[in-house]
Amino acid sequence: MKKTKFFIRRAEASDAEAMQKIFSGPKAIWGTLQLPYPSLDRWRKRLAEPPEGSFSLLACVDDDVVGQLGLYTFPQNPRRRHVGQLGMAVRDDWQGKGVGSALMQAAIDLADNWLNLTRLELEVYTDNEPAVALYKKFTFVIEGTLKNFAYRDGQFVDVYTMARFREK
User: What's the order of all strands across the beta sheet hosting 155-165?
Assistant: First the structure.
């Protein structure tokens, strides 16, 4: 079976429709803190005016956007400049096909080799076993469990806090 080659690039304001499509999928909604029925206008604003220190990476197959990863840093907080927070979503029809791995590789390269981040952190629902496995593959470790962290589909759910450390 031929392995899909993903092209990773930075998100632009013109990617709002692709982002809305990613975050409209039931699986993407289930695995993230996004609400159903995402607004195209909100995505346009978010992409047109990203906060300082944020990097939105897209995984593409040809011209088709199939996944997104946000890397958020803390340029205004001297005591947290070594830290990046990650959030990711893969379009429902592309889950389980290597998109998450391609995005994680790109984010870790950016964090390690360009931003000099020594801690990457994220939160993931405890019942999202594929995502937990992906993060462990990239040397993230579970640091703790936050009980009743979010409300999803009529019930409260827990998350793991996970982190990856790079030695200086």
Answer: 7-10, 54-61, 64-73, 83-90, 119-125, 155-165, 141-152
Q: Is the pLDDT of residue 168 over 90?
A: no
pLDDT in tens, 84-122: 999 999 999 999 999 999 999 999 999 999 999 999 999
Tokens 């390269």 locate to 109
pTM above 0.90, yes or no: yes
Residue type, 27: K
pLDDT number for residue 1: 54
User: Which domains are delineated in the chain?
Assistant: 7-120 (3.40.630.30)
